[in-house]
Design goal:
mainly alpha; 3 helices; 44% helix; elongated
Length: 87
């Protein structure tokens, strides 16, 4: 008979992730103290980091100067030099 997957609450996952964030703490050791597989804890940390990154990404408004009307714009010259290979 196959074993059912265990599920963990968000608060428990957050507690484990917080314990792993302490300096000089081994993720494997934290996993063992909670009878978890270290790979599972690493996955929780990756998912948590991705969610935090998604929350930080946001639209940032930028102030610009008003556009200059075309009749006031200065004429511009664009010059592109293309080197020719020696034959």
């Amino acid at each position: 008979m196959p074993q059912e997957r265990r599920s963990y609450s968000k608060s428990f996952k957050a507690q484990v992730i917080t314990e792993c964030a302490h300096p000089d703490t081994s993720i494997a050791n934290v996993a063992l103290t909670h009878n978890l597989n270290a790979n599972l804890v690493h996955k929780w940390i990756r998912v948590h980091a991705q969610k935090n990154l998604a929350l930080q990404t946001a639209f940032i408004p930028v102030k610009t100067s008003p556009p200059v009307p075309m009749h006031q714009a200065l004429p511009a010259t664009i010059r592109i030099e293309v080197p020719h290979p020696k034959v």
